[in-house]
Amino acid sequence: MAKTALITGASSGIGREIARNLYAKGFRCILCARREDRLKELAAELGENTRVVVCDLSKREECFALYEQIRDEKIGVLINGAGFGLFGRFCDTDLDTELRMIDTNITAVHILTKLFLKDFIARNSGYIMNIASSAGLMSGGPYMSTYYATKAYAADFTSAIARELEEQGSKVHVCALCPGPVDTEFNDVANCTFGVKAISAKECSDIAVKGMFSGKTVIVPSAALKLAAVGAKLMPRKMLVAVTGRVQSKKGELE
Fold first, then answer.
1. CATH number of the domain bearing residue 162
2. What does the alpha-carbon distance between residue 171 and residue 80 come to, in Å, rounded to a whole number?
3. Dist CA 129 CA 222 (whole Å)
4. What is d(CA 161, CA 117) in angstroms, rounded to the nearest whole number?
5. Residue 20: left (phi > 0), alpha (psi -120 to 50), or beta?
6. Crossing angle of the two packed helices 108-123 and 145-168, in degrees rounded to 10
7. CA-to-CA distance for 124 and 190, rounded, in angstroms?
8. Of the chain's two ends, which shows fewer C-beta atoms within 10 Å, N or C?
């Protein structure tokens, strides 16, 4: 397997910790995000041969440009980590922000997965991790409706591709990371607070990378969340959405 990894959303949180983890395992890392200063700081920490690519993945043309810029570098691991959330009643939240979220959380993941997967299949090796959320395993999330929908897309999309690859006998592995609360900058961006204890981004990344290389398709870094996801499948949809709404409503102030 090629020992170069592309990590989007590498300027903070889970993406940054996964970059550190992969670098420690001997991977050359290509770090991608919008904040150049953060990326350069991480690149300096990781050491020589680490590359920084600044781009805004909420813009479709920049997703394609990123691929064209690095397609010849024999990427062996793709981490689709760029993404963000937004808290509030759907009728009150900002439409432009939501559309940018959809473009980042869904469109960018879709484009980059499609483009790199074709290359990986051609050489029959490679790993793709799409960072979704435990929210993507639930049925709807009042007060974070768009975010929940984007993460459901990521989780379902990834699981379906993984099954296609399995049926083809491919050695390419695709997985979805579905964490619950993680101690990152997510809350500041989403304008909310977690109602339960968060795990560290490092702990999440350690579980994620281990799960990816061991062949897991859906990685949930919490036993409690695994049980919750199973329970969600058994609960009537209307009831589950109501329960989720009560939990979500406590995350921040509603207008």
1. 3.40.50.720
2. 19
3. 18
4. 10
5. alpha
6. 10
7. 38
8. C
Catalytic residue from among 143, 147, 148, 153:
147
> Cβ(187)–Cβ(193) under 8 Å?
yes
Residues 10-34 have pLDDT tens digits of: 999 999 999 999 999 999 999 999 9
Tell me the one-letter amino acid at 191: N
Torsion of CA 224, 230, 235, 236, to 10 degrees: 130
Per-residue confidence (pLDDT) for residue 136, from 0 to 100: 76
Alpha helix segments (H runs only) across the chain:
13-24, 36-46, 60-70, 95-102, 108-123, 145-168, 186-190, 201-213, 223-234, 237-248
Where does the pLDDT of residue 35 fall: very low under 50, low under 70, confident under 90, or very high at 90 and above? very high
CA dihedral 187, 192, 198, 204 (to 10 degrees): -40
Question: Which DSSP symbol is given to 197?
Answer: P
Report strand pairing: 4-8 vs 173-177. Answer: unpaired
Least confident of 23-27, 61-65, 187-191, 208-212: 187-191
Taking the CA atoms of the chain, what radius of gyration do you get in angstroms? 18
Provide the domain count of the chain. 1
pTM of the model: 0.85
Pairing relation of β-strands 75-80 and 4-8? Answer: parallel
Domain range for residue 86? 4-251
Q: Is 147 a catalytic residue?
A: yes
8 A C-beta contact, residue 20 and residue 11 = no
**Biggest CA-to-CA distance, the chain:** 53
